[in-house]
């Protein structure tokens, strides 16, 4: 999985007044969990642009005073009106410990059902993946090459390589629905098949 580097500074004071001053300075208060003890730090709000405002997922390298820690974004709080970032929690990664993340679904292949007039619907844009940090995928591939019109692609049909999918087995990832035009054409064809041929003698 691709990684983004966030450079920050450790915080000594974590009271409400200090936190308010941090935000007023265009910084975001953060906490890194998962180590011996939580680490409070701040980083510029603009540094999180490519981490937060994207459909992709990334691991994070947090640089604090020359020390680096690998982590993932665990929780984020936004201002209810301005939508500015108020606070971010990170969780430190360990090479020998599995981690759970929501990973985007990437559609691959061409569906015969879509070529025949059906409509592809992506039911799950992200799936819950569990893996060691080194095996976390950038996306989960959903191949729709065998989906005929009316078919569904279940999570159990997806290929997993060194990672596990934690979604229930009956989770529908994608499906090809019959379009209105295709349905109308099928109905008209059925009517034509039932109607007696013109000019046919009894």
TrEMBL record:
<dbReference type="GO" id="GO:0005840">
    <property type="term" value="C:ribosome"/>
</dbReference>
<keyword id="KW-0687">Ribonucleoprotein</keyword>
<feature type="domain" description="Large ribosomal subunit protein bL25 beta">
    <location>
        <begin position="98"/>
        <end position="178"/>
    </location>
</feature>
<dbReference type="InterPro" id="IPR001021">
    <property type="entry name" value="Ribosomal_bL25_long"/>
</dbReference>
<keyword id="KW-0694">RNA-binding</keyword>
<dbReference type="InterPro" id="IPR029751">
    <property type="entry name" value="Ribosomal_L25_dom"/>
</dbReference>
<protein>
    <recommendedName>
        <fullName>Large ribosomal subunit protein bL25</fullName>
    </recommendedName>
</protein>
<comment type="function">
    <text>This is one of the proteins that binds to the 5S RNA in the ribosome where it forms part of the central protuberance.</text>
</comment>
<dbReference type="InterPro" id="IPR011035">
    <property type="entry name" value="Ribosomal_bL25/Gln-tRNA_synth"/>
</dbReference>
<feature type="domain" description="Large ribosomal subunit protein bL25 L25">
    <location>
        <begin position="6"/>
        <end position="90"/>
    </location>
</feature>
<dbReference type="InterPro" id="IPR020056">
    <property type="entry name" value="Rbsml_bL25/Gln-tRNA_synth_N"/>
</dbReference>
<keyword id="KW-0689">Ribosomal protein</keyword>
<keyword id="KW-0699">rRNA-binding</keyword>
<dbReference type="InterPro" id="IPR020057">
    <property type="entry name" value="Ribosomal_bL25_b-dom"/>
</dbReference>
<dbReference type="Pfam" id="PF14693">
    <property type="entry name" value="Ribosomal_TL5_C"/>
</dbReference>
<dbReference type="InterPro" id="IPR037121">
    <property type="entry name" value="Ribosomal_bL25_C"/>
</dbReference>
<comment type="subunit">
    <text>Part of the 50S ribosomal subunit; part of the 5S rRNA/L5/L18/L25 subcomplex. Contacts the 5S rRNA. Binds to the 5S rRNA independently of L5 and L18.</text>
</comment>
<dbReference type="InterPro" id="IPR020930">
    <property type="entry name" value="Ribosomal_uL5_bac-type"/>
</dbReference>
<comment type="similarity">
    <text>Belongs to the bacterial ribosomal protein bL25 family. CTC subfamily.</text>
</comment>
<dbReference type="Pfam" id="PF01386">
    <property type="entry name" value="Ribosomal_L25p"/>
</dbReference>
């Amino acid at each position: 999985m691709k990684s983004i580097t966030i450079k920050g500074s450790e915080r000594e004071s974590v009271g409400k007044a200090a936190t308010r001053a941090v935000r007023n300075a265009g910084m975001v208060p953060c906490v890194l969990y998962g180590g011996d003890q939580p680490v409070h730090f701040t980083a510029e709000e603009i540094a999180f642009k490519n981490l937060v405002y994207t459909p992709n997922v990334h691991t994070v390298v947090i640089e604090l005073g020359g020390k680096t820690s690998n982590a993932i974004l665990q929780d984020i709080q936004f201002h209810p009106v301005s939508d500015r970032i108020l606070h971010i929690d990170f969780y430190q990664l360990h090479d020998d410990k599995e981690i759970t993340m929501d990973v985007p679904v990437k559609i691959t292949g061409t569906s015969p059902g879509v070529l025949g007039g059906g409509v592809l619907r992506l039911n799950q844009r992200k799936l819950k993946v569990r893996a060691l940090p080194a095996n976390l995928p950038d996306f989960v591939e959903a191949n729709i090459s065998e989906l005929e019109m009316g078919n569904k692609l279940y999570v159990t049909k997806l290929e997993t390589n060194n990672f596990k999918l934690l979604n229930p087995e009956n989770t529908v990832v994608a499906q090809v629905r019959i379009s209105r035009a295709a349905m109308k054409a099928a109905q008209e064809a059925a009517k034509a098949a039932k109607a007696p041929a013109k000019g046919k003698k009894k």
